[in-house]
Amino acid sequence: MSDISTTPRYVVTTHTTASRIAATGAVILFLVLVMVPFFAGRGLIQDLFFILTMLVLAQFWNLLAGYGGLVSIGQQAFVGMGAYAMFGGVILAGMDPIPAILLGGVAAFLVAIPTAFFAFRLQGPYFAIGTWVIAEVMRLIMAQVKALGGGTGTSLPRSATREMWATEWIAGMLDVRNSAARDILTYWLALLLAAATIAGIYWLLRSKRGLALSAVRDNPEAAKSVGVDAGRMKWLVFLTSAFGTGLAGALIYVQKARISPDAAFSVTDWTAYVLFIVIIGGIGTIEGPIIGVIIFFLLQALLADYGTWYLFTLGIIGIVVMLFAPRGVWGLISDKTGIQLFPVRRRLSGGTLGEE
Amino acid sequence: MIWVDTVVQGVLLGGLYALFAAGLSLVFGIMRLVNLAHGDLIVMAAYLILVLVTVLGLPPFLAAAVAAPVMFGIGWVLQKYLLNRTLGSDILPPLLVTFGLSIALQNALLEGFSADSQRLPTGAISTSSLEIGALNIGVLPLLTFASAIAVIIGLNQLFYRTSLGRAFRATSDDPVTASLMGIKPGHVFATATAIAMLVVTLAALYLGMRANFDPNIGPARLIYAFQAVIIGGLGSLWGTLAGGVIIGVSQTIGAAINPEWQILAGHVAFLLVLLVRPRGLFPRAVD
């Protein structure tokens, strides 16, 4: 009996050395990114805003498709509804744009409930096109809302953008013009949203629910047999992802300050790009979308002048990666090196394993 | 009477949607593959016909006959060397590869033909109509609908009366056992997609003669086709026709109430069917 206290106990861990270094690195990176507006120009801030918001969209699509097995082509529904709810809050209810971002997330969450009700009746590839149809329905309905500009769209009123929360304070502190202060504010919010998204998804995946989620994705029948409620996991993932995508959509359109149904519900901008980011980076990992968004940004910077050729190339790259490296760039790296920056696998260590 | 006219126009429009959908339905029925580039392939075929018409001066129907074997070949190669590699239990690869293909095709067409909308020259046929009682029915919509019925009868005959059709059904049921019987699933799939591309060519011909098209309209055609397949029920070609007709009639009724509601009405009809009969009206395949 006394042995128990002296022999080392078995411990279940998920941390690795690489993940501890990565966590420290992530904190440092976050602090550096917070400081960026103090020394960088407006162009860099706008580029970083784009990267961070695309990263948020990619992480949520990855949660949906990579972990939840729900391949949606209708994420633009939640970007658009989030953005339109924010516009509605500002234009119709006279809210400040910043709290109206939350309204965007809530609106996306609410429309996700009937959306899921319909889309979950479809399986696999039909789910994918079903979500797309629902996004189209939302686009066509929003084009009928004349108070928000109808089919041609509308802009945020100047009074609302000029007096936005905290912009005056930022303008004074950093000695920049009002419009630059607005970019800095939205950048900081994007940074906060991206950090919260990654931390939140990582926490979810390491929790008991995350284990259940992976089990459902890998084998729904086996997961059900050990008591996992597969249907509830699908709802959880779908609604979470809609809420986050709606927040990102609202934030993106606070920065753009102009909306139209075709832009806000664009399948290319909010789903095709996001898909390529996740595929190229590596689906089913948290690292994948981070690498993917960087590659996507570099590609865009290199090829954006070529317009249609850029999209053509993106399509071909997506096909090639899917065929020859289905786990993306991060899959290749992690196969070679065994490194996982955000490990979710539980390992048994300590004790006297195999020493009997 | 105006309502009868609206419904008749809708039914005939449904014929066009059934033509869009028949190829999709065929490919899905045999290999459970949803080709997200289906709409863009229709648009590509329309441009191929347009090139033949403008460069060689062929009439549209003859141009489509020339384009058909080309599309057949494209379909065969596409399936054999690209899409067959994506088939398996994982649904991600086929979806993402065909989505990538859709983006690539759309932008290649934009690069080659610009975003200007085009139309196939039709001559007298586009304006001539038949007078039945008080109804005026266009010859072209009627021809489209008749073609849709002919295609469905043809595909059903192929499916249930020929050895190729037997190979299709066998491979669809159980590719492993089928290959033990000397069938090469890879070849069967390639042939199925090639045949689907023949239907696509016919759909493209009517699409191009009836309305303007440009490189960006592919995804919307895919959505109509998909809705027709789902409403009809998986695996039933006649169901697909019924689905196309339901979408067509909803759209013309919607448009008669308010022109801006045309597309929306089709989508709403689709969602309603999904609500009441999640497996479609005439489901055959269990999936």
From TrEMBL, chain A:
Keyword Transmembrane appears in the UniProt entry: yes
GO CC annotation terms, alphabetical: plasma membrane
Source organism: Marivita hallyeonensis
Topology in the lipid bilayer: Multi-pass membrane protein
This protein's UniProt keywords: Cell membrane, Membrane, Transmembrane, Transmembrane helix
Location(s) in or outside the cell: Cell membrane
PANTHER family for the chain: ABC TRANSPORTER ATP-BINDING PROTEIN, HIGH-AFFINITY BRANCHED-CHAIN AMINO ACID TRANSPORT SYSTEM PERMEASE
Residue spans crossing the bilayer: 20-41, 48-67, 73-93, 100-120, 184-205, 235-254, 274-303, 309-330
InterPro entries: ABC_transp_permease, LivM-like
MF (Gene Ontology): branched-chain amino acid transmembrane transporter activity
Official protein name in the record: Amino acid/amide ABC transporter membrane protein 2, HAAT family
CDD domains the record matches: TM_PBP1_LivM_like
Signal sequence segment: none
Main location per the UniProt record: membrane
UniProtKB/TrEMBL annotation, chain B:
Keyword Transmembrane helix: yes
Keyword Transport assigned: yes
Pfam family for this entry, one: BPD_transp_2
Family matches, as CDD domains: TM_PBP1_LivH_like (cd06582)
Protein's GO biological process: amino acid transport
A single GO cellular-component term on record: plasma membrane
Superkingdom of origin: Bacteria
Keywords annotated in UniProt: Amino-acid transport, Cell membrane, Membrane, Transmembrane, Transmembrane helix, Transport
Membrane topology annotation: Multi-pass membrane protein
Family classification: Belongs to the binding-protein-dependent transport system permease family. LivHM subfamily.
Name listed for the protein in its UniProt record: Amino acid/amide ABC transporter membrane protein 1, HAAT family
Source organism per UniProt: Marivita hallyeonensis
